[in-house]
């Protein structure tokens, strides 16, 4: 697996992977193997859309999204908080409660996205 950092950052299970399909898939296999099928499907869809539209935009979007997802997953505490917020949003009994949990999950995702784009 190619990496940008030789050592994992504090609390991370693995170093941050490069934003390439192979590096992200390898990271996914380690920190979130349950997401491999979704990763592969997203990759295939982005490539098909890129060909259909004659643009690399879908590929860049898939790489950015999965880099953020894996940034969350490589930090166990962050991953727990993210998945908890998503779950609580799904089982919420009011729209306000669901919104509160979705806002928390979105904030964690944005933070992860900023972290991988800061490089």
Number of helices: 5
Strand content: under 5%
Helix content: over 70%
Basic shape: globular
Low-confidence stretches: 1-7
Tell me the structural class. mainly alpha
How does this structure look, described?
- The chain is mainly alpha-helical and 119 residues long.
- Helix content is 71%, strand content 0%.
- The protein contains five helices and no strands.
- The chain is globular.
- 21% of the residues are buried.
- Mean pLDDT is 93; it is low at 1-7.
Summarize the structure.
With 119 residues, the chain is mainly alpha-helical. The chain has helices at 21-31, 36-53, 57-73, 76-91, 95-117. The model is unreliable at 1-7 (pLDDT under 50).
Topology:
Blueprint: H1 21-31, H2 36-53, H3 57-73, H4 76-91, H5 95-117
Helix pairs in contact: 1-2, 1-3, 2-3, 3-5, 4-5
List keywords for this structure.
119 residues, mainly alpha, 5 helices, 0% strand, disordered N terminus
């Amino acid at each position: 697996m190619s990496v940008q950092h030789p050592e994992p950052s504090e609390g991370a299970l693995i170093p941050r992977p490069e934003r390439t399909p192979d590096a992200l898939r390898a990271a996914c296999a380690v920190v979130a193997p349950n997401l491999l099928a979704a990763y592969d499907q997203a990759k295939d869809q982005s490539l098909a859309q890129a060909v259909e539209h004659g643009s690399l935009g879908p590929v860049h979007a898939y790489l950015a999204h999965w880099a953020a997802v894996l940034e969350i997953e490589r930090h166990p505490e962050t991953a727990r908080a993210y998945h908890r917020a998503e779950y609580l949003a799904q089982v919420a009994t009011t729209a306000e409660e669901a919104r509160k949990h979705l806002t928390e999950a979105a904030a964690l995702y944005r933070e992860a996205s900023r972290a991988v784009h800061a490089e």
